[in-house]
Amino acid sequence: MLRVSNTAVAFLALAASLWAQDSAPSDQKTIALLVQQVKALQQETSDLREKVRKLEGDRAPAAPAGARTEAAAPQSAQVTPPEITTPHPTAEATPPESSPELTAAMHDLHGIQWRGFGELDYQALDQRQPELGTYGFVPGSAANFYTGDFDLFLHSRLTEKTSVLADISFEEGDAQSYKLDLRQALLKYEMNEYLKISLGRYQTDIGYYNSAYRSAAWLQTTADRPLIMEYASNGGLLPTQAVGISITGAIPSGKLGLNYIAEYGTSDTIRPDLNGAGTVNDENDGNHVLVGWFAHPDWAPGLQIGGSFFHDKISDAETSLADRFGQTILNSYVVYIAHGIESLNEVFLIRETQLATGAVSNTPAFYSQISRRWGRVRPFVRYQYVNASGRNTIFNDVGLRAGPSFGARYDFNDYVAFKAQLDHTQRESLPDLNGLHLQVAFTF
Amino acid sequence: MNGRSISILLATFLASLAFIPPAAAQKDLAVVVNPGNPITNVSLGELRKLFNGEKRSWPGGMAVKLIVRAPGNRERTALLQFLNLSETDYKQHWTALVVRGEADTEPFAAPSIGMVLEAVRALPGAISLVYVGDLKPGVKVIKIDGLLPGAPGYLLR
Known about the structure:
The complex is a heterodimer of chains A (444) and B (157). With 444 residues, chain A is α+β, with helices and mostly antiparallel strands. Chain A has two domains: 2-104, no CATH class; 114-443, Porin (Beta Barrel). Chain A is 17% helix and 46% strand. Chain A is built from five helices and 19 strands. In chain A, the strands form two sheets. Chain A has a 16-stranded antiparallel β-barrel. Chain A has a two-stranded antiparallel sheet with strand order 9-10. In chain A, helix 2 (25-58) packs antiparallel against helix 3 (65-72). Chain B has a single domain (21-144), classed as Periplasmic binding protein-like II (D-Maltodextrin-Binding Protein, domain 2, 3-Layer(aba) Sandwich). Helix content of chain B is 38%, strand content 17%. Chain B has six helices and six strands. Chain B has helices at residues 3-17, 23-26, 44-51, 74-83, 87-99, 113-122; strands at 29-33, 41-42, 65-69, 108-110, 126-131, 140-144. Chain B has a six-stranded mixed β-sheet. Chains A and B meet through helix 3, helix 4, strand 3, strand 4 and strand 5 of A and helix 3, helix 5 and helix 6 of B.
């Protein structure tokens, strides 16, 4: 092969030589003229590039002086280490390729960034008694379409360290009516990775699910949230939102990857009874305190473990607003998301102490969800359990609820997913509930 | 040509080989940052946190600007393997970060290596992954756990 190549090169060289010798003097002059013109054009291009570089350098106000120097004269900065010196040390750097995308990426994003989430659901149950958390259900009907939440997330960077985040949710109510809910409205300040402060309405950091998935169905693998993580406005048991201050940041801990969370705010919660009786329980929460932690160990990529302690004082509106309860919520979780596997495991203990009598009631709850992605399909299994104490007058509509869910999520593309889910729920003193939940969730 | 000349030429050729990275090193992924960034070394864990958006500022407070390749490129595939995520999971992960206010947007996905290098040269907090064979002047290669690409035990490839 080498011999053939050498022969070809020799032949070409010989032919070129012969052609050059046979060329008329006028052709040689033409060639010389063309070479001269090419050189002139090269010089002109070089001058223009230099002017463009100077102009771009003048238009980059935020870059430090050192960086501007590098950008202005990339050919002069050979900074690759000697161990990996480029194979052609004399080769010139490739000229910059300019594009609108790069120009956009090279400038900080200003203005408001929008992200939208929507869903269309169809749910069928084998019971005609409606329950909350099932959205579009009307009494007497066992299968309905509904649109769930339509969310608009807004994010605006004000300065390098300050930003605003909002989550505007249009939540479907009865008879195709929609309720506007400002689920998040936060002014965020990131001093550094150790101190990040948020002021406004936030999702409480009770548990992993509440902070990880917010209210976007598209982000969730399953068609719905676990009951214990359901929004209080849909019958959920926890104060999922609050108004106040939230502080978080990293704790210098090496490969353990520890982070802290601290919240202080008003988590006033109005929770309708799950059984759809129409009773609404205004808990009249005081100011809650939450402290928590989580870790992302370097030695186990994809693993997150954490926990939190929440304390507040609430009332039972069905009995007496003056009758206050101390509410303490303990949470711990282990989450693993990597290699296509998603494993979410959370356990809760809601402990309520009647301040007047000292009577205590405990409500343990947990859920465990495992899924695995195969291409576009992600089958999942979830088991959830909530057992509200019979002595607990606030959760007297909940009782014991437990059961599995099975299903799969199919991602059509990066924006649209279809989910099919079967649920079986055992309910204390009520017939078991079996359901089929179909959902198209999308983002835009 | 006498034997001495041949010896000199051979010695020159062998010496030049020392400056050419071995084929294995060409397949290593170099972590490149803006030359103005004082960082010289990161641990593998820190690198993972940088590329999954968990670590968003450099020591000193400068914001991290992630530059990645567009889907379908070998650097992108290597990045996803490094993060143990599929393309779909990667996009969902970044969407979740944006929704939580932990990122402004998904990292800029450059369609060409030239654009990656230009962005790293131009943005003070930029970081990206570039195969050693594609390196060009104007960017700074940093060590991972004390190792440069080509060194025995270098893990990123």
